[in-house]
Amino acid sequence: MKYILIIGLVIIFSSCVRNKSGQVTQTATPVNQNVFEVSEVLQANSYTYLKVKENGGDRWMAVTKQEVSPGEVYYYDEALQMTNFASKDLDRTFDVIYFVNQISKNPINKNLPGGMQGMGGMTGNPHSGKVESDPKSNIQLEKANGEITIAEVFGNRQDYSGKEIEIRGVVVKVNKQIMGKNWIHIQDGTNSEGKFDLTITSQDLAEVNDEVTFKGKITLEKDFGSGYFYEVIMEEATLVNKSTAKISM
User: Fold this and answer.
1) Which CATH code fits 150-243?
2) pTM > 0.85: yes or no
3) DSSP letters along 36-93, please?
4) Of 22, 44, 111, 146, which sees the most CB atoms within 10 A?
């Protein structure tokens, strides 16, 4: 019965409706809609791992950490398949797992800005370049003459495109070993038109609140697929220096 109801919902969302004048108008039809039922939930530090039933089979999915319960039904639009993914938090390796860009209790309408859905939905991108941090926080690093700031990288991105640079900042977010690399977000207290957070990919690792210096190549308009797009990113960086002193934020 649950799957019959789901099919009915999809038909309703894609059907024609009449407006007050009696004219027939076409409602927005969600595209690339996929739907699953949650059968098992495993919570880790940064992610929620879901064993789901989809198309008559079972599979594992991962979303940014959120409250999900067995028996609930969700829609999603995009997923990134990974094989032999090791979760250190769970001490478990998944033969195949799908990292999902966003899930929603309602069909996802991609015609809305950013593909956002209506009430009851959940969103989350494990590698999102935007973090919930205040650029006016007390991260204030004094930089030496000639030392590059994050504001300069964003403000003069064309000058740095394809070049290897060193940059120093404070770690505000870390996603470990996704697609074979660590994803580290840093800030230094500078801001260029609302851009204050630089994402760095590296085999080296730092922790939140560490003061770090990374050396790597700046890449523009980087699209990893599955909705993971960065206007500016530092790739394959190496950790030059890490301070053990913590900075309060």
Assistant:
1) 2.40.50.140
2) no
3) EEEEEEEE-SSEEEEEEEETTEEEEEEEES----TT-EEEES-EEEEEEEEETTTTEE
4) 44
